[in-house]
Automatic annotation (TrEMBL):
PROSITE patterns: PPIC_PPIASE_2
InterPro entries hit by this protein: OMP_Chaperone_SurA (IPR050280), PPIase_dom_sf (IPR046357), PPIase_PpiC (IPR000297), Trigger_fact/SurA_dom_sf (IPR027304)
Domain PpiC stretches: 184-282
Keywords, alphabetical: Isomerase, Rotamase, Signal
Gene Ontology molecular-function annotations: isomerase activity
Protein name: Parvulin-like PPIase
Entry-linked PANTHER family: CHAPERONE SURA (PTHR47637)
SUPFAM superfamilies: FKBP-like, Triger factor/SurA peptide-binding domain-like
Pfam families: Rotamase, SurA_N_3
Domain of life: Bacteria
Database matches in Gene3D superfamilies: 3.10.50.40, Porin chaperone SurA, peptide-binding domain (1.10.4030.10)
Amino acid sequence: MALPLLAGAAQAQVATQGSDAFNLPEDISFIVERSNPNERRATARVNGSIITGTDVDHRVALFVAAQESEISPEQMPALRLQVLRNLIDETLKVQEAANLDMAVTQADVDQSYERYAVQARGMSVEQMNEYLYSIGSSPRTIKRQIQGELAWDRLLQRNVRPFVNVSEGEVTELWERLEASRGTTEYRVGEIYLAATPANRAQVQANANQIIEQLREGGSFIAYARQFSEATSAIQGGDLGWLRLEQLQQPTLEAAVAQMTPGQLVGPLEIPGGYSILLLIDQRQIGMPDPRDAVLSLKQISYTFGPGTTPEQAETQAAAFVEAVEGMNGCGDADARASAVGASTVNNDEIAVRALPEALQTVLLQLNVGETTPPFGDLQEGIRVLMLCGRDDPTDTSGPSVDQIMAQLEDERINRRAQRYLRDLRRDAVIDYN
């Protein structure tokens, strides 16, 4: 993954006048050639705090473990440099919080780590520790990331959020527009934002193209957003939440999202200030019930082929199973008829349509009570159907509240100020690379 974002981020720290402020010549000849940055050792001292090669190794291992696709040896050096950049930013945040008497204590970090292990990963602290060591990482790397996030949250709460104002008039105007648009579509969008300047736009675009390629090969959008996105939504894995097109406040993004379908990935899209990679997580109609929020009562009817069953025997048994299913008169006699042909049944009375695979969602929403899906599976593992035994349809939704709209507008303005805040911390830092 060619990610010279390090150079891009450094160039983003110059004054807003752009490169013209430096009166740079078009033809630059370096007096001393600089070594390839991809060959530099990934260690640094940030205002006296050391980032070691082991710190980078453990964070890279954590990132790689979250991916479905492998990171090639050619991409690894650039990934390590990007990880180093993130570690530098985390260090600056922790230092700033400490300098302002808002230091994150070890108790705060340990408590958050335990909550992450139990709630997000379903593990005890000991199990989480063992897992991290097994992938070549360590508890320390997660705790370091937690410390950076907690420190940044405290800094924003004290130095940014109090100075962000959203008027009641702005909120009321937007709420009235939303009410007037009941029945139109609302989108849940994920974003990876990469800042760029006129001097480094081509470089950042190439980085974004590499990220897109990795995501399409199975990379985790959440992991890439947390690692590479320069928006404050990176902490939520890039999730911007539910919004209408005009709330994106960028014509390019609005036009792209309007054409997307859930699960689709697009980008990089050039916008003022950089590039965006978008993932449409979901969509729904404002103020209208979403059929996928219906709660179903389902009966799964399964037939498993015994060991040694030949393909010919499996086809015969499958045909008998399908014939038995077609003869069932609803869920009342499904158990007896299934047992008669050696099939088994399992009931689930509280499963949301949205929780099912997309292919099944479409089929189940078209079924009447007592009908079944087409058989699915294979002749090796067995086949099954789902029978609809009942459905509780969703009720109308009122859409976002005034408080939710105000919170979103505030978050957008906080995000812009936060980027400037971090840019200032980088500019004033003393960083020595080894």
